[in-house]
Amino acid sequence: MQTRWGAIFALWFAGLCAAGQFAKVGVIFQELAAIWPEAGTRLGLVVSVVGAVGIVFGTTAGLIVARAGARRIIIGALVAGAGLSALQCLGLPLGLMIASRVAEGFAHLAIVVAGPVLIAGAAAPRDQAAAMTLWSTFFGLAFAVTAFFGLPFAQAHGAAALWAVHAGLMLVAAGLLAVVLPRETILPAPPLQLGTVLRDHLAIYASPRIAAPALGFIFYTMIFVAALTLVPGLVEPRWRGLTAALMPLLSIASSLGLGVQFTRRIGAVRTAQIGFAVGALAAAGWAVTSGAAQVGAAFLLSAGLGFVQGASFAAIPELNETPASRAQAAGAIAQLGNVGTTLGTPLLLALTAAMGPQAIAAFALPLCLGGIAMHLWLSHRRARA
């Protein structure tokens, strides 16, 4: 089998568009207050409600993709997402905007569940680590691109103009995938019923293969988003800008560089464990340093977590052979990933209020060790199966 890199890059572009559903409001959050001055704390829902959909329905989305076919799901979700972005350009009242963001959450979830399945199918075994690691960068890169280009664009032309561009990009992604992805053969499967969904959820999380990527990934997401949000404010003021800019970029670089090489040679699960070990070392270093050395510890934490980021997605095809089980694993990653990103920042914020900068070590070190222990336990279960 030859790797279809054109399809993989088109899918990655679709992932960037999906991450843009968060970035298009998160990056310009301060500007949104002028659009809905009466919103108060409800304005936060414009950002967070998209992720809440993933918490509730992530694994269910994996079951739906396994039955309906990843190609039709991702193309349909991109078209729907484009329509919702276009609708938001019309100046919706806050209640309707939040409702549209709920609908957008379903489109986002469909893309991030179907994408890994299709990428794994388009990559030859020798290239799966690189392809899945590339996919794993979509979230951080979309935020970086939106911050660099989208924020000044929205400040100059308004939020609606940014959302219109996003709608157009999603349509482009849908058109590309319609051309480059081959049509699927959908095998008959029993319809989804409440009892079936509950049994399937239990089966997914009981499986040491299907659940393994997600059960490790939640430790990563709890640390990473919280650290990106709060660490720059805890270092010396002269280092804050550099820290905020380089942390996400170092994570992407380590994931696509050494992370891919490690995954090819020793496997995704061991690479994730190495990443957590590097993160634990960085957290310990943070606790005993200050100034520039503490910034270095933050950079090392980001680099180590970059290993975990790519390896977690590479573990989906490494541990699961069929499209159905890969869809279920991707759905579990979406679900637990959203749980981690939702819980991590408020937990670290509370710790920081109580402990000051030392909260970073107290928060990240046990989570990194927990990620290592989780993968050791699941590896032991797979070996005994």
Structure report:
- Residues 7-382 form the Major facilitator superfamily (MFS) profile domain.
- Pfam families: MFS_1.
- This protein has 15 helices and no strands.
- It has 385 residues and is mostly helical.
- The chain has two domains: 1-192, MFS general substrate transporter like domains (Growth Hormone, Chain: A), CATH 1.20.1250; 195-384, Up-down Bundle (Growth Hormone, Chain: A), CATH 1.20.1250.20.
- Helix 3 (43-68) runs parallel beside helix 5 (94-122), helix 12 (268-288) packs antiparallel against helix 13 (291-319) and helix 14 runs antiparallel to helix 15.
Please write out the topology:
Blueprint: H1 5-26, H2 29-35, H3 43-68, H4 70-88, H5 94-122, H6 128-136, H7 138-157, H8 159-180, H9 194-206, H10 212-230, H11 237-266, H12 268-288, H13 291-319, H14 323-355, H15 359-384
Helix pairs in contact: 1-3, 1-5, 1-7, 1-8, 3-5, 3-14, 4-5, 4-8, 5-6, 5-14, 6-11, 6-13, 7-8, 10-13, 10-14, 10-15, 11-12, 11-13, 12-13, 12-15, 14-15
CATH overall fold name of the largest domain: Growth Hormone, Chain: A
> Any guess at the CATH architecture of the largest domain?
Up-down Bundle
**Number of discrete domains:** 2
Query: Could you say which structural class the secondary elements and strand pairing correspond to?
Result: mainly alpha
Quick recap of the structure?
Residues 7-382 form the Major facilitator superfamily (MFS) profile domain. The chain is mainly α and 385 residues long.
Summary keywords:
mainly alpha; Growth Hormone, Chain: A; 2 domains; 15 helices; globular
